[in-house]
Specification:
Blueprint (H helix, E strand, L loop, with lengths): L12 E10 L2 E11 L4 E5 L6 H8 L7 E6 L2 E2 L5 H6 L2 E4 L11 H6 L7 H4 L6 H7 L1 H13 L15 H14 L4 E5 L7 H16 L3 E5 L3 H7 L2 E6 L2 E6 L1 H5 L2 H8 L2
Helix pairs in contact: 6-7, 7-8
The structure holds adenosine-5'-triphosphate and magnesium ion.
C-alpha cells in the first residue's frame, strides 16, 4: 500500500524555546527541537521528565507558557487540537484510546475525514446501512488493516484486541486521518514481544513511506534499533541529543536516565 509519495515537500515540525509551567513548576523548560522530516526521532528520559507534556503542547491540548511551535512556515502555537490533526499531526496516546465497542474495521472507517462520523452518532444509526454506504471506505480500511497486520481482526470488537494490537489499530486510525507526522507515546510499552515486532516493523515501513515519526520510549533496545535521532529529557529540559549510539552511551544520559 502506498501511503504517500517520498518526494512530497515535507515541512519540518519545530519547537522553539518551548516552556510550560504548572503552578510555578516547569514541566517543559526552554525546549528547542527541529524534528527531521521522514526520519524517526526518539524522546527518552525518566518518569516525569516532561515527554508527554511536550506532546500535549505540540498537539494543542495545553498552551505553552512561552515559546513557539512551528510546522514549516506555519505557526501552530495557538492552534486547537482538531486544527493540528487536520494539518497532518497525529497522536498515539500513552493509554491508546480506540473505540472499544466498535470492531477493528469500524474504528478505521469512522476515522476517515468527513465520512460517516456525523451519521454514526445519530440515534437511528444502523451498522448494516453504514457498511453498505461506505463500500469504498471499507475497502480502504481493509487495506490499512492489512498494512498494520490486523487484517484477520477486522471483525473483532476492539476491546477484545490485545494492548499491542490496539496500538496497531490506533496507528491505523492516524493513517486513516492522513497523519503525516506521528507522535507516538510509548508505542512499545506493555506490548507482548510477538506484537512488539509488528509495531517496530510498522514504524520502519511508515518512515519508508515518507512519514515522520516522533516517539517516546523507555525501552533502550527499541530506541537503538529504530531511532535516527535521540533527545534526552530530564527534569523538563533537553540534556543530550544526537545519534542513538552516541547518546545512549553518553555519560550525562547514563547518569540522568539509566542511573549508572
Ligand atoms: N496537567 C498537569 N498539571 C500539573 N502538573 C502536570 C500536568 N501534566 C504534567 N504535569 C507534571 O509535569 C511533569 C512532567 O510530566 P509528563 O507526564 O510530561 O512526564 P513524562 O516524561 O511523560 O513521564 P512518564 O515517562 O512517566 O510518562 C511531571 O512532574 C508532572 O507531574
Ligand atoms: Mg509520559
Amino acid at each position: 500500500m502506498d501511503l504517500s509519495r517520498r518526494t512530497d515537500n515535507v515541512p519540518t515540525l519545530e519547537v522553539k524555546h518551548l516552556s510550560r509551567f504548572f503552578g510555578g513548576v516547569a514541566a517543559v523548560n526552554n525546549v528547542s527541537i527541529a524534528f527531521t522530516p521522514q526520519r524517526i526521532t526518539a524522546l527518552i528520559g525518566p518518569n516525569g521528565a516532561g515527554k508527554t507534556t511536550l506532546f500535549n503542547l505540540i498537539g494543542g491540548y495545553i498552551a505553552p507558557t512561552s515559546g513557539a511551535i512551528l510546522l514549516g512556515t506555519g505557526d501552530l502555537t495557538t492552534r486547537k487540537p482538531w486544527e493540528i490533526a487536520r494539518l497532518g499531526i497525529g497522536r498515539l496516546f500513552q493509554d491508546v484510546r480506540v473505540f472499544g465497542k466498535l470492531t477493528t474495521l469500524e474504528n478505521i472507517v469512522v476515522a476517515f475525514p468527513n465520512q460517516v462520523g456525523e451519521m454514526f452518532w445519530q440515534p437511528i444509526f444502523q451498522r448494516a446501512q453504514m457498511m453498505k454506504m461506505e463500500r469504498p471506505n471499507i475497502e480502504r480500511a481493509q487495506a490499512l488493516l492489512e498494512f498494520v497486520t490486523l487484517a484477520d481482526k477486522a471483525n473483532t470488537v476492539a476491546e477484545n484486541l490485545s494492548f499491542g494490537q490496539q496500538k496497531l489499530l490506533a496507528i491505523a486510525r492516524l493513517l486513516a486521518m492522513d497523519a503525516k507526522i506521528l507522535l507516538l507515546d510509548e508505542p512499545a510499552s506493555g506490548v507482548h514481544p510477538a506484537v512488539l515486532d509488528s509495531v517496530m516493523d510498522l514504524m520502519s515501513r511508515l518512515v519508508d513511506q515518507g512519514k515522520t515519526i516522533i516517539f517516546i520510549e523507555h525501552n533502550i533496545s527499541v530506541v537503538l534499533e529504530l531511532a535516527h535521532w535521540v533527545y534526552v529529557l530530564d527534569d523538563s529540559e533537553v540534556v543530550a541529543f544526537g545519534l542513538p549510539d552516541e547518546v545512549i552511551h553518553d555519560r550525562v544520559t547514563r547518569e540522568a536516565y539509566l542511573g549508572v
